[in-house]
Amino acid sequence: MAKATYKDYHIFVKNRISALQDAECRCIICNKDADCVHHADMDKANHEPENLLVLCNGCHRIMHKEDDPEKTRAITRYERVYGMSIKKMVAKFGGSRSRYYLLHRQGLLKAFLAGDTYQPPPQSSKYFRAYGVHLSDMIKLYGGSANRYKAMHDNGSLVDFMKNPFREPKKTKFTTLYGLTLQQMVNKHGKHHYFYRNLHLDGKLGKWLENHK
């Protein structure tokens, strides 16, 4: 990352830090630890947040590899699944490598290559970059509220949840004692988590919930 090669370098640094934080330093393609930030449209002057993709070193090299990309493991996988390498997709349909990586993550690449009706996704968000699904789609697919996924994202549990979103949630002491999780109490009655924790520690939470059904 040579400073001289970037226009408005200070903007890039600022947005790079934000992108890494939003993705929790995980590669959006393979989910490995990552510290590279790639310009999706290959324009080093475009430092808009939606144009910055967090990648590990391996996936970043594939994005930029020009000589014999078919020899790399990732490209071979695309040939096996889709019948052509990323390089050939770019040559045939245009755009950047990033375009096809993102279509693959959304499950839309086969339809795109087959020429079926294709609707481009909405502008990329930090949730899409980190988990491959927009926040609004998580709510539609798995239920719950936006606050549920925001809280899971903030405490780092959303990565594990997205691996198996339909599993039964683990029982906690709150669900065992009161039949509700802390988040369900917040969603139903308002107030902050600490309000219910303090009532629980004082032995008054059960009675409070009875009076506020």
Characterise the protein shown here.
- The structure is a single chain.
- The chain has 213 residues and is mainly alpha-helical.
- The chain folds into 3 domains: 3-114, no CATH class; 133-161, no CATH class; 173-211, no CATH class.
- The chain contains 14 helices and 2 strands; from the N terminus they run H-E-E-H-H-H-H-H-H-H-H-H-H-H-H-H.
- A two-stranded antiparallel ribbon has the order 1-2.
- The relative contact order is 0.07.
Summarize the structure.
It is built from 14 helices and two strands.
The rounded distance between the terminal residues' Cα atoms is: 58 Å
Supply the helix-strand structural class.
Answer: mainly alpha
Proportion of residues in β-strands: under 5%
Low-confidence runs of at least 5 consecutive residues: 66-75, 116-120
- Mean pLDDT across every amino acid position: 76
How would the global form be characterised?
A: elongated
Strand count? 2
Q: What about the largest sheet?
A: 2 strands, antiparallel
Strand order of the largest sheet: 1-2
Order of helices and strands: HEEHHHHHHHHHHHHH
CA radius of gyration is 22 Å
**What is the number of independent domains?**
3
What is the helical fraction, as a range of percent?
40-55%
